[in-house]
Structures are given as C-alpha cells and as structure tokens.
Protein: uroporphyrinogen-III C-methyltransferase
Amino acid sequence: MIALAGLDLTDRLVVCVGAGTVAERRIARLRAAGARVRLVAPVATPGLAALAAAGDIEWNERPFAADDLDDAWFCHTATGSASVDAAVVAAAEARRVWCVNAGHGGKGSARLAAETTSGDVMVGVVSTAGADPRRTVAVRDAIAQRLAEGALPLRRRRRPLVGSVALVGGGPGPIDLMTVRARALLAEADVVVHDRLGPTGVLAELGDDVELIDVGKRPQHHPVPQDEINALLVDRAARGLRVVRLKGGDPFVYGRGGEEVIACRAAGIPVEVVPGISSSIAVPSAAGIPVTHRGVAGTLHVVNGQDAPSEATLAALRDDSATVVALMGVSALPRFVAAARAAGAPETRPVAFVENGHTPAQRTIRTTLGTAIQDAETHRLANPAVLVFGEVARADLLLPVAVARGEGVG
Structure:
C-alpha cells in the first residue's frame, strides 16, 4: 500500500544516482525543496556538471557504491540500467533510506508525487498500483486548473497574527475575464469588500463563512465614504483576516486603489495590488471598437467624465489621431460635449456610447459630437456606460456599415 506523505528536505542529504536529463529535472525539484544533493555518476549532463563546478551540488564522479548513501535521508536513482537501479534500491532498503526508482517506479520504496501549489498549499498526486506518471500528471493538471479558477477552498482555518489586503481588479464583469491570481486570492479570502460593478457573480461561489461587505457606489450616492472603506480594510486585516478588496476594472484606473494602499501601509498592513482589465479598453472592445488602430488612432486619452475637460483632454478631442475614452461620464455629458465643441473639436467627430458592456444588456449607440447630446437623450443613455470619442468610433471602421448601423444610431 502507498501512503502519501510530505517530507521536509530542508538541509537534508539526498543522494541522486544517475545524471541524465531525468535526474536533472528531479534534482531541480529537490534543490527547490532545500535539499543538499549528492550526485553519483561517471558522467553528467552539462547542467548538472555546471552545478557541481559551482559547488551547488556534490558530485562523486564514478559508479555507485553502497556507502554513497551514508548519512542520506532520501535517494533517487535514474541510471538507465535496470540492474544498477535495482542495486541502489537494495542498498537504500538495507539502510532504511526511502528510494525512488525512476526507471521502474513500482520497484522503489518511494515515489515522487506530481505536484502543484497554490499559495501555501501543495497538492501531490501518486498512483497506488504501479507507477503511472501520465495519469498522475493529468490529474495534477486538472486540480491545478481548478485551483487557478478559484473553484477549490484554500482558506486557512488558523488565522495568521497579521492579516493582509489584496486590491483585486476584477475586470469588466465576466468571471472568466478575471486573472488567475484574482481567483486564487478570492478562494483564500476571509473577507471580500466589493463594489457594485465588476464580476459580482463570483461572490455566489464563495463559502457561507466568507464575510461580504458591499461598498458599491452609485451615481450621486456613495453609501460608504472612502475613509470608511479604508478603515474597514485595515480593521479586518488587523484581526488577522485575509481581505480582498474586489473592484471592477483595474484598482489603479479611477478605482481609488492608491488611497487604499496608502491607508494599509500607514497601518502596517501588508497589501498587494492585482491588476484587472480596465473597462476603458474592455468595454469598447466588446462593442468592436479598438481604442487604437494603425493609421487611425495612435494615442489613447482616458479621463474621468465627471471632471471638466482639461486642456490636454480638449487637445486630444481636437486631434484626429487620438482616442478619448470617458468613464463615469453620462451625467456630465452635456457639459463635456459643450466644452469639446467650444474648444474647436469638429462636429463630425465620431462618438460611441457603450452601455452595460460585457453583459446581456450591452448596447452601442453611434453618433457624432454634433448630435451626441440629442442622441443620448433620444436613446435614454444610462449608467454604466463608457463614452468613446474619436475616429475609432466610426461605424464602418471594422464592420460593414449595414451591420454597424444595427447597433444604434448609424
């Protein structure tokens, strides 16, 4: 019978007999685990020879002898000779040293698991009846994928003395557009402080014991001020909890992530930032609008649509080769458009409004700067929406005009 166990090889001697490519890969794993490696082989791969020359491993440059196992905690043999491997296994057995026989896994006293890690969790897969590396690797890969998707529980039951905060960019909304790192952190979270927009559907996948705190802002309505959000993050992390601040888009693109980083660092709380796909790029993309396009637009200007346009923004609106993307700009659209027209931006400048990007309710309204306010009123433009100004918003840039005009105003 096979029993799966975890071995701490830190600063313990492991003897590796044979110095081919298999041994080179295994020695890399053993060294990564902190083992001291003694290599026994008449010849070695260039990589192993280089490690020995650098003093990173010990190399007995000769055939195996039983006393090579003196003081060893673990042994690995991969000589390519069944008889030599069998002799190594027998010598290890006599000294009660666990031994992996890479040439015939079923004839060693130990097996190396196919491993995957996620944070501080390591998962190993071994065969119980004979060695079947292809099968164990396939199972390992399937588990690794589920871990990466955040579909398996990873949270610590014993809380650390000091917690942590991760500012996670969730992207434009679909769960499958989140990063692997974002999913893994959510799977480990004790507390999730989330916004109204972004991948809120992922919250349903979390355990019932995960604390969910909704701090989502709506136009003209901020139920939880930023200072209180900062205090929440610090308070929960100070209790030794793993906190995820889940945001739509990217934490550093109008997400006030910088303010939250400052608050955490001032309180001595470890904090990391996980980037997400910004809606300034993802939402136009969902509508078939590239924010840059060779020969059309080579500059991207992203602005907070609630602010009065700066001189730089007005210059970009006048520039035929620039794209201006305005976020959170629906309520201030009349003022924004009036400033652009007054600054000399052409009335014919193409404009696109993309509502509810990456959702079943997504809608694209195509217009121009001269008719943008009227068309927004006619089509009852509403939040959330991303506003795109520039030649890339032309209806016929990527799509035939007949197809593009089916979206909204042509």
Remarks:
- The mean pLDDT is 91.
- The first strand starts at residue 13 and ends at 17.
- Residues 133-148 form the longest helix (16 residues).
- Residues 40 and 64 are 6 Å apart (CA to CA).
